Automatic annotation (TrEMBL), chains A, B, C, D:
This is Trehalose utilization protein ThuA. InterPro entries: Class_I_gatase-like, ThuA-like, Trehalose_catabolism_ThuA_prok. Residues 4-220 form the ThuA-like domain. Residues 224-246 are annotated as: Disordered. Pfam families: ThuA. Residues 231-246 have a biased composition (Basic and acidic residues). Gene3D superfamilies: 3.40.50.880. The lineage of its organism: Bacteria, Bacillati, Actinomycetota, Actinomycetes, Propionibacteriales.
């Protein structure tokens, strides 16, 4: 049973800036999806913010095991209801992978509960992505460091809540550091944030980055497809009488 | 400099059900505030859902170091913007104490990021609240167990995200268990959830419960009053050149 | 490739107290091993404290993927070197399952780093073991609560360090509570503590308890057999020159 | 009531290598103690491995609220009993600050429970120490980054168990990264590891490093002096009968 992956991105830079379109002719979502296409475990589709209902809806989410999210310039325009819907799905078991500037996205912030702000940024820097959790499945087959000649610097303090595991830590040409791969648990769902991926650089064409994302899809996927029962707490009218000694 | 506490409650049961009004003639918020009044460290006011703007607003939150929240029957009617506002304040350092049925409140869920559902409930049960974190400041002067002849049972699994510390665990007459005192960190803010407090029982008149809440106010209060700067990430145009050896 | 399980116990009560021998004629280790025998994933052997070298040695540990430990009356006599050896193996990936009174064992305390003391105990009580982590693999197929008519009470505060996940919480006939199923991460290794298992009661004959232990073996087993390389930190004589822009 | 600090170091390099003696004429312990001397909150003494009983003993530990540990070349010769004793004291509330190469010390490893190995090292590199936990008391008055022209590189993966908070993350001239300030909780005790401090460089003379260490002493100090009761679990012969409804 394949893992059903929905790759969502805002699809704005690619359509409005020729130099970005040159890097991602099929969109950032297209490049990410292409990177997952060869992995027999995944069934992949893309959705974008410029589609009706911003590409989302119950029908889409009902058939999504893992949602990959890339947003940047138009994150403020994402409807609040999608943040709420994504959070509800994660709680019921859907995996969520937030990429790069999506640390500021409404769905990611709704799931994490803190500002998720990076303390700073700078375009046009080199990045080294070091493995910090040596045996984490997301690091399988990934060299340490991953070397990126061109990337965007994000830096500490990274205002994230209590994390589960630090999987990657990056340093940049300017010396800054950033926890660039971190995991979280929310309800039944697993969440992974991965730092690299500025739109100006062909990062999602990099086979190593594609391996990280593929590993993360497999790791965040729920063990069983969620049945999405909308159950509330159960009323228990009687105590467990047998528990009390006679 | 006193800690400025705002006690917020929905003030519904007390006004519509005579038997609840008999237990809390000054409202649940009034009883909680009265319990904090004798502690010289606190400057306390109350606000309720039936006030204009549901008792909230920037002016209120600007002058709140710790927000205590009690909601139940009308939590669905709380405006989403208050969940967003409370979350933003917590991230900037405001303490948040969510009581009893407020595990289902919009602000608490927004801060935590999971469903926060208890698996079940039952009115009219006895509760024992055991200290699990022996030296936590919230437990200072608190006996273990706290004995409650009449309480409402909540039970595991309690769907909360990764917690910081388990401070209290309760058992009930029916044998169920519940992590009834848990802490979280979000941004600069500290968060505490405390289980006991069903409206039918005079739990907030109990001096031991008042001590727990007072301890929790002192513990969640920010070290310094937040200045609420709405800063985004800083653009760093230059790398730290001095970092590179000549 | 089967998971190689070594079930270690002190084998003292069974040999010196007829009433315990009646409950565990093949020893506590024998009952635990029998409970794992039908699971085709495991290759099981037993070792006991009254054997040469207290049943341990590099040859045993070299062929152990998961070590189950049960100690009680003679834990003070376990050689310190076994605590050190078990800790080193866990760091390299061996799974460790500590049962019941083994919270006070030298190997478990060496791995955890705190006193691991329960605040109290009482023989001859009923126990309810409630699932707290609803989707944890260790809870698969396990009812909540597990009902034990006869068990030994342990209670909070349970002095364990920061835990990874609370999987089970027990309540007892006397109303006490105890985090009776908790996980930890140490180096490459996974660790699980499970509370039930006093020697006077036939707890390890219970098919549900056997399921918990089987699930825990599968969950703590390393993804790959550790190669046990005794590597120290690597000397890196040169910085990554290519990292520096020209 | 001042915080009683014991600064322990092995005092080996300083006595055997003239070039190290030139950097630390009063020993590494002497420089660290001098850095704490001006803070009116502390009562400081030094102890070294070349003293009788390796500078330790119940009399020393009985009067220590916070123990600072620096070891390197002779860590293998530290008696195992001191690792056990330090761990027992931390569990009872003593603060522990492990510096630099003391990640490999017996007491630190006994408290943490994992190998605590850095993946690599290199002398003679520059280091930037970035604040990752913006409001942690240990970072008060500390610039981000702390700039060290000469330091020793340690790098990820850093094999530490689940940590409490990441306070500092360093990058090095070669691009490597390291979680250089991390906290842990064990029993009643607080533990802090701080990375910088290679013996060849005058790091402990740096006023900013001294501020970090002073902050860490204040933060790890127990709220009340431990009474060191050697209590075991309490036998509770009777259940809480009043808990059961009539």
């Amino acid at each position: 049973m394949p893992i059903r992956v929905t790759v969502w991105s805002e699809n704005y830079h690619e359509r409005h800036q020729p130099e970005i379109a040159a890097v991602y002719p099929d969109g950032i979502h297209g490049a990410i999806a292409a990177g997952l296409a060869d992995d027999g475990r995944f069934e992949v589709r893309t959705r974008t913010q410029d589609q009706p209902d911003q590409g989302l809806g119950d029908d889409v989410l009902d058939e999504t095991d893992v949602l990959i999210w890339w947003g940047h310039a138009r994150q403020g325009e994402v409807d609040d209801r999608w943040a709420t819907a994504v959070r509800a799905r994660v709680i019921d078991g859907m995996g969520l992978i937030a990429l790069h500037s999506s640390l500021n996205s409404k769905p990611f912030r709704a799931v994490i509960g803190s500002s998720c702000r990076s303390a700073g940024f700078r375009h046009g820097d080199s990045e080294l992505v070091w493995t910090a959790a040596a045996d984490h499945p997301i690091t399988a087959g990934v060299p340490s460091p991953i070397v990126m000649a061109d990337s965007e610097m994000y830096c500490e303090p990274f205002d994230i809540a209590q994390i589960d595991e630090v999987v990657f830590i990056s340093s940049f040409g300017g010396g800054e550091v950033f926890r660039s791969g971190v995991t979280f648990r929310r309800g039944r769902g697993r969440v992974f944030y991965f730092g690299p991926g500025h739109e100006e650089y062909p990062i999602y064409h990099d086979p190593i980055v594609r391996r990280v994302i593929g590993n993360a899809v497999a790791w965040t996927a729920p063990a069983a497809r969620p049945s999405h029962p909308r159950i509330g707490p159960e009323r228990r009218d009687k105590p467990l009488d047998w528990f009390r000694p006679a």
